What we know:
Elements (H helix, E strand, L loop, with lengths): L8 H6 L1 H36 L4 H24 L3 H6 L8 E5 L11 E5 L18 H20 L3 E8 L6 H7 L4 H12 L12 E8 L15 E10 L2 E7 L5 E7 L3 E10 L4 H7 L4 H11 L14 E10 L5 E14 L2 E8 L7 E3 L19 E4 L2 E4 L6 E4 L2 E4 L5 E3 L4 E8 L5 E6 L4 E11 L8 E2 L4 E5 L9 E8 L2 E3 L14 H19 L3 H15 L1
Antiparallel strand pairs: 1-2, 3-4, 4-5, 5-6, 6-7, 8-9, 9-10, 10-11, 11-12, 13-16, 14-15, 16-23, 17-22, 18-19, 18-21, 19-20, 20-22, 20-23, 23-24
Helix pairs in contact: 2-3, 6-7, 8-9
Amino acid sequence: MYDTGIQTKDELNSGAASIEAAPAASSLWHRARRNTRISLKFYASVSRLALGQSRWIAASGALGALSLGLVGIGMATLVAPYEGVASASLTADRAPRVLALDLRPDAADEPRAIVAIQPTDDFHTASLADPGMFTGDMADDAMADLTNTEIDAAAAEPREVEVKVALASGETLTEVLAKAGADRIDAYHAVAAMSAHYSPRKLRAGQEISLSFMELPEGGEALDGETPARYLTAISLQPDIERAIEVTREADGSFNGRELMREFTEGYVRAAGTIENSLFLDGERAGVPPQIIVEMIRMYSYSVDFQREIQPGDKFDVYFSRKFDENNNAVKEGDVLYASLSVGGRTHKLWRFDPGDGVWDYFDENGQSMKKFLMKTPVDGARLSSGFGMRKHPILGYSRLHGGVDFAAPTGTPIYAAGDGTIKRANRFGSYGNYIAIRHANGYETAYAHLNGFARGIRAGTRVRQGQVIGYVGTTGRSTGPHLHYEVHVNGKKMNPLALKVPTGRKLEGPQLAAFKAQRDVMATQMAEAPTMTRVAQAGTDSDSAN
Length: 547
């Protein structure tokens, strides 16, 4: 055991250690005084010789002060290792004594535990002269205190915590991490590590992000008494179904990002049914995913007017690819490979085919592309609310030429470019409100008015492709409700979009046509071997139709 240096009255009377301590202290003090006097005399003599009689007083004073400073530093260096002992010797007799002890016989190589003991009136303080202060009961108590200390320390060990957060509108990833408790510098470096594989700017509002932290349990505190910030260890997110982005903290504290790609197997699905309400509603009832139905509408929007031509009793049939995970769960829809739509007793069949130039298209049984120069209806699920020609204006109150057609649809419904071309203007345009004009080939132009807003990247000079989203239905400008006002101009003259005859797409010939027919035959065999789930969907559809 080690004593702080404070002695009891008994030790002052009978302890040999206290008798020896006084001469040692006195000797040290006398040596310091003697060294100081010698140093002062030496510097005084040197200064007289070097500076002369007139200036030696000031110089000797300065050198004396320097000497005293050096002596003080030397003294502090000598007593520094015993700083705790010296301080304890000046405290009151009832002050706590800090004792070092080791009560575990098998812990010889481990650091000894430090225990604070507050002396009471029924026992005296230990010292080197009286090491027998601990009784058996006192040792047990000290051991219990030590055990409780170890338990508290173990309870305060940091633990791993996982948190899921969602990106709010207008919020950056760095802000999300800081709000979750990450240090801002850590957040900055973690985002930088992610940027090598995925740009945080692509994140959208609502994106779920998983965070991992190391932190003390609730109520735990750091040594400085303040609750520590969470220690960020990992970030993970899944921007799409096929890949995940992970950022992890390395052993040296740096962050490392990586991209993980999931592997899926591809299968094929077929569904068919009878239209009683709409292609969308009856398609969903038959098990067709919404994105596949939307693709079918786009496929036939060149030749079928879904607002006026679709009638109850019309039929559809679709065959498409689908991706499955390792548990055979459908995770992503693929491409429409074949579709059939019977409208008014006439059946339209289309197959997906790539002629070999990398530009795939949908072709009918004769190899004719389903695409036309312009789409008939550049908006999905809309109702024709006003046709082309003279009419009484609903706001102005007098008759005038309605130079386009109106499609009523909910605000925010996507609007598509009717054909390939270049944006001529995309801005506010008088009574048209938000307005887009597209210049196509051969003197054709199309116009879209009363938009709620423009799609990302749509501005004057932008090239667009047929079917690309350019804006959203609204009611800006002189309008009585949300709708799309659609116009077609040919060499500057307004034409009826629904009656206009426009050029068709390419037609397959020679080797390309032969390859297309061969692929058609293979696909017919695949469709005959459609999965069981497809036949179940078909049976369910027939049952629904019968009711």
